[in-house]
Fold each of these.
Amino acid sequence: MRARILVVLALCAAVIAAAQTGTSPTKPSSLSLQQCIQLALAHNLDLQIERLTAGIAGFSLGAAYGAYDPTLSFSARRDYINEPADFDARKFNDYFPAQLTTDTVGPSLTGLAPIGLSYNFNGRVGNQSAITDFSSDPEDASFYPGGIRRTNDSFADVGVTLTQHLLKDFWIDQQREVIRIRRKELKMSEQSLRFEIMKIVLAVEVGYYDFLAAREEVRVQEKALELRQQFVAETHRRVEVGDLPPLDAEQAETQLQNTLTALTAAREVYVARQNALKALLTEDFRDWVDTDVLLTDALLALPAELNRSVSFQKALQDRPDLAEARLAVEKSDVILQFRRNQLYPNLDLVGHYGGLGSEQGSSAALSEAFHFQYPVYFYGVVVSFPLTRTAERNNYRASQTAKQLAELQVKKAEQAVFVDIADWVNRVQSRFTQVSSTHKARTYAEAALAAEQKKLENGLSTSFFVLQLQETLIAARTAESLALADFNKAKAQLAFAEGSILQKRNLQLEVK
């Protein structure tokens, strides 16, 4: 039997069409989040590695069934004996010297059945040629030319030998243990592959939102630079006409240079975030390194429906890592069953049935054997057992402990997931509130700056206060974009924690 793993990752038709019909489907310059996910699932190196690992598990299961492949062997042999004259104390005459040549040839078919039965079908046909020297007995020698008797005959035997385990190795043996373990490991590899897909989708989402936040920060700093430049120009003009002291111009220039520094840092982060996203989307970063990726999605704050109890239940049903941990318990239970079976004594039913043939010709002897004119058979029961079973008992106890350990690991994993879900539910709620408050703060900061600039124009304020409000506005714009990115990342993390991230992205996974 050969196991195959087929992963079907289906996105909505528009996304697939966009990925397939674009001018450069492997290296597009404009990407939505869905397109990024599609590219990552097709080209991400970690996912390719995990797919191959899952494939190895399938081949390993197929290899385990090889234990039941029958073995066909064919042998040909010649035996030669040159016996000297000898005597038997119980006989009157001595043994005459003789030469005996025996040629045998035949096949055999051996193997195991999945019920603890071993079988051996064998057949053999042979020819015996004997030369007996009667020269030591003139009376007997007179019957043969030169006192030498030459004889030739053929023989054959066919039969089948069966051994059936009745206690130890009956309902499970080492071969069946390996097969059942490999089946569990195949299912575990499928869950591991699913979990890796979830991690890749999460990484792409987080990377996409980080890239968006970096892009927004560049825009904030560019707007700040434009604001600073306008303020510096206006300050210089008013200093020249005597409305403001020269110190105000120096303060404005200082803030302008600080903004240039911040813009340079923001652009550096922007490039780093872009490179991090590219690394998730391709197996050849060099081909992408000079491509300037433009993100088509915007940072939005769509409300999320939150219910911790529902999320807990989803995680128990949908988290692949929890399913893999449960399969590890089932795997340890298979080992425990095998170890328990090894505590029983060997009680084997054995039997053989065959036929013999002896004629002048090989074909005639073989025909006689197959017609079972001269049957040969035996049957019986064989019982054997070690006197102490020290190894078997300790292996069984170790397997019991290993199963308990696997069960505790499932509980620990479930608890960690519940804690993770509770944290992310709280963060989603908190960061949605931050989105609202940072939006209001940015609106108020814009209004306050506009009012302070009018006061400065009317001589009712100073450039110091205007610069302060500009700093407040820049910080408010940065905080708003970060809050939007953090909220969307928190929602993605929550979907990952509860195991629903693939469904939320219209992804379906089939394993066959």
Amino acid sequence: LLQAEHAWHVDKKRVLIVTTEMSSLKMAQRFYSAHFRIAYDPLRKAQLDMFTEQKMRDGVMELMKSDGLYIIGGDFDFRFETMEAAIHESNPDIVFVDGAYLLRTTGDGRTEKAANTFDELKRVAKRNKVPVIATTQFNREVSANNAASMSIEKLALTDAAGWNADLAFGIVITDDMRRDKRMIIKPMKFREGFGQDVECWWD
């Protein structure tokens, strides 16, 4: 969401956000939190002070008049055909898919379905000439408190995610970092060039 907000607000790109994990409303709340720089925890608990709440309400009204930001979730059926229809309708410059492993596809068993999902995401990107940023999970071999245990080969269910990726990043949040609301975005694969760790504050 931080990347999506930056692409839309700073770089003035048309952005499509597809979430398989939560409703459009929940995703929009998180987007507002990032966009208005409002801490998410009091926002989701409806514990904003009057000034912050009014700031957000005014900002949301302005956002509703804006163009180029589309969020689909909730009753979205997670089929690729529906996602491509949304791409054709919104004509985005970039697509963000939250929870790619839950997109519906064919295959015998979870592993084959997951492989087909990432193969199809690559095809969608090429067919529509639009970059696709997708989130997925690590398998149980990765320890949350050990950044060294994280690698592209340890993505859950399939190697196809890593094979198809041009760039791949892992998010590291140790117990100590969680208390400080920090995380590290760690590069795992660069098809060209090199990457560096980026530390950010996620609340």
Amino acid sequence: MRSVSHHQLEAFVRRCLVALKMPERHATIVAALMTDADLNGSDGHGVFRLPQYVKRIRSGGLNLQPHIHLAEDKGAMALVDGDNGMGHLVMRFATEIAMERAAEHGVSWVGVRHSNHAGPAALYARMPLKRDMIGIYVAVGNANHLPPWGGTEMLLSTNPIAVAIPSNEEPPIVLDMATTVAAYGKVKTAAQRGEQIPEGWMIDEFGNPLTDPARANEGFLLPIGGPKGYGLSLVFGLLAGTLNGAAFGKDVVDFNADSISFTNTGHFIVALAVEAFSDIAVFKRNVDAAIRSMKGSPTLPGFDAVRVPGERSFQVRCQRERSGIPIPDALFDSLAELAESLDTEMLSES
């Protein structure tokens, strides 16, 4: 492992994107969001994805001059067309719209089509927190790794959901989960590190446990809760994909294998103003009380503490802001090759 400061990492990502002719203002936004993913511990969705993004940009599969705009506008409800732009830019635009409309209407649902991979779900669910709003984000994953329950054809993706709820003195509640036992990004990072994955993440076509991530293409991910996870993945795909005129099911493009085809990724973001339902201060104090109640619960044997969603991410962020972001050697070497190919300054260790 190498260690780099988040300032160094953000500057490196920005340099790479600018070298690819992405407008500087866009590169600044994307670099900040990608670095935020790594700070929060979403290692499969931060700088790990940069070589993949670069490949897609070089192949012409991503629009560097997108006209991100409202395709439909119904006040509290809206539909954003991302014009095949970088997913981070599209979702930031959509989330800003959702927050503006929620301030006026109390709640806003903004759908998105013609987007791309946008990093971890929590990035966008967290944004409304700064305005004392609840954020809810759902996306169609960028590759299908899940068959319908009882089937073998991979027609569904991890289709994640994130929900962020503001608090007062405690860190906010931030639920960020895939509808599969593990996100595929975790499988990819394990493969790069030469690590095995736990039983229960994947099975092969014969139903046997698959623990070698290098053989991931020989099997598929398992849904959380069996048929319940399958049902969630299906419903989220319909809401984030089909409803928005975005890809779903057989139309999903595997961006791991295809760098040229437009992905037409779909998402939606909901911003909900707490003040439309409750006094903000009272609500946040009550959230604090709920968190403390959970954490004060007696533990089962083998557990050192009861945790709440987002707690680990908060702790990781605090640690990485102090001591730097760990970069596995294989990824560091890949980024060095990338910098050389782009004729830009390499990432420096802390």
Amino acid sequence: MATTYLSKTLSTATSNGIIGTFSFWVKLCGIRTDGNDYMLFSSYADGNNRMHIKIDGSNTLDINSRIGGAVHLSKITNRKFRDTSAWYSIIVAIDTSQGTAADRCKVYINGVQETSFATDTNPSQNQKIHALENSKVHYWGSYGGAPTNSAYALDGLMSHINFIDGTQAAPTVFGSTDSVTGEWKISTSPSVTYGNNGYFILKDGNSVTDQSGNSNNFTVGNGTLTNTEDCPSNVFATLN
């Protein structure tokens, strides 16, 4: 996506800031070697009130939310994301009303729940998460605090971006395991209730028109989106 990014200011949240699911596919075209981050998703009001999902400078997945300067959610995987030949399915499913702390933010990679974290801070019960609150701006492919800064720009492709407002969805909503190959395969038309702020973009090619029925269409910033034939259901070989 280079320094091109997508953004949308949302309205009143279904979940009042405590329940929601992010599901998307990403293919990395390069591996970060400069210590900076590949920002996948961010929501930003200021330095003390923000959320991000990123591949950090160590090539690990980093999920973080803070409100009023306090970090309420922080998960950094031990797993490294360095495969530039395949698409990753990433799902972050949040419900802070859950009684068990570990159930309040579940992370799935290619349909399998991630359980090995170098940092694993779960939100307290009923804690609000910045990006799930009312009237937040959602950014894809950039850091909301500096959306055109190349230090945070994603060198990669994104597809089938879903945000479910008000539901902690299971991975089987968005894909299934092939019974022959064991490969995680995409469900291109998930059956979900999206909630007030939910959306589904980049479903077919480079369209930022919301396919959820909510008309939460995104705006392309700093350039144009390039449509590629390489997608989660039609993976092209990549020269290493």
